[in-house]
Structure formats: structure tokens, C-alpha cells
Design brief:
Blueprint lengths: L1 H5 L12 H18 L6 H8 L3 H7 L3 H24 L5 H13 L7 H4 L9 H27 L8 H21 L4 H19 L3
Length: about 210
């Protein structure tokens, strides 16, 4: 009885009090927010997807806004690191872009921050919004840096690298919609990825 009384309300049993539980909640939250956007997601939704109680979610993350910010910062960090790893592989840039595009398009959830942030502006502080936008900008910079390196070697036409990187990310969003329109599946993902990179390449290949 002493242990039960000393436990904070919502505190999970000791067996659940580990980092994997927190990470599982964070992953579930990220999936919910990317699917539906901030406003449409409740803590009940996150708990159900994570397979825990709402009290456990609140034990690890004190509010929906805290959970949202933590989840989206983790998504952007993982996306940035994965993008950087693929772009730093050996081989022609076009092949690396195709691999990156197939990888990104295979993820059903969007990384369009305008969609994800929908309805969050009144709930989040300005510094929280700024932090997420900075994380999004860092992803753009990773792509732009690789484009700039290729331009310096004369393998790409000199263009505004940040604009080209943002254009590529915008094309990814349209690519996801096109995959859904065509019925999905790996063959469709590969097809759309090739078309998307071809479209981008026409704007940056040397003349």
C-alpha cells in the first residue's frame, strides 16, 4: 500500500517506467499529428495508438502542446539525419536523390508543416512555433548544401540552392498525393519518385 500511495497520479507501474514507453508515446503522437494535424488530435487518440492509458501519456508529457512539440522536433531531427545520410552516400547526385525520394514517399504521413501545424497557432507559444520552423529550415539547408556542393563542381546549373531545396520538398508533398491518386504500392512509389526527380532535374541540370 505504501508504494501505491507514493505513486504520482497517472504514474505507470514500474515495469512501464522506461525510455521505450516514452519513445512509443512520442512515435504514436507523431503519427497522429502528421495524419490529422494538431487541432484534430486528442490525448485519447495518442493513448489509443500507443496502447497505453491517457494517464500514462500525461505522466510522460504534461500537455498536448508539450507532446506535440517534442514529437515534431523528433520527427524533424530523424528526417534531417536520414536525409543527410542518404545524400552523403557515394554515387551521382541524381541516384542519391532518387533513393531519398523513394524513402520519403514510402512514408505515408506528410511532413508538410503547414498541415501539421493547422490549429496550433493559438495553443503554442511563439518561441515553440519558431523552434519548429527552424527545425524545418535545417532540413532545407541539408538539401541545399548538397546542391551547392554539386554546383561548385560544375555538375549542376547555378541556381538558388535554398529555393531548389524547397521546391524539392514541395514536390514530395505533391508526390504523396499522386501516389494516393494512383492507388499506392511500391511500384507506384518507384514510378512517382522517378518522375519527381526527373522534373526537379530539368530545372537544375547543366545547360
Amino acid at each position: 500500500m505504501r508504494n501505491a500511495r507514493s505513486r504520482r497520479p497517472g504514474r505507470p507501474p514500474q515495469v512501464e517506467m522506461d525510455e521505450p514507453t516514452a519513445e512509443k508515446i512520442l512515435r504514436a503522437a507523431a503519427e497522429c499529428f502528421m495524419d490529422q494535424g494538431f487541432a484534430a488530435v486528442s490525448m485519447d487518440d495518442v493513448a489509443e495508438r500507443a496502447g497505453v492509458t491517457k494517464a500514462v501519456v500525461y505522466y510522460y508529457y504534461g500537455s498536448k502542446t508539450e507532446l506535440f512539440q517534442r514529437a515534431m522536433m523528433e520527427v524533424m531531427r530523424a528526417s534531417r539525419e536520414r536525409t543527410q545520410a542518404i545524400l552523403r552516400e557515394n554515387g551521382p547526385l541524381r541516384e542519391r536523390l532518387q533513393k531519398l525520394t523513394r524513402t520519403r514517399l514510402a512514408i505515408p504521413a506528410t511532413l508538410d508543416m503547414n498541415h501539421i501545424l493547422r490549429g496550433s497557432q493559438r495553443a503554442l507559444r511563439q518561441d515553440q512555433l519558431d523552434e519548429m520552423h527552424r527545425a524545418e529550415e535545417q532540413l532545407v539547408e541539408v538539401i541545399a548544401q548538397e546542391l551547392e556542393a554539386e554546383m561548385a563542381e560544375g555538375r549542376l546549373r547555378p541556381v538558388d540552392a535554398m529555393f531548389a531545396a524547397r521546391s524539392y520538398l514541395a514536390l514530395l508533398g505533391m508526390g504523396q498525393a499522386e501516389i494516393r491518386r494512383r492507388g499506392g504500392g511500391q511500384a507506384v512509389i518507384d514510378e512517382v519518385a522517378e518522375e519527381l526527380v526527373d522534373l526537379l532535374w530539368r530545372g537544375i541540370e547543366p545547360t
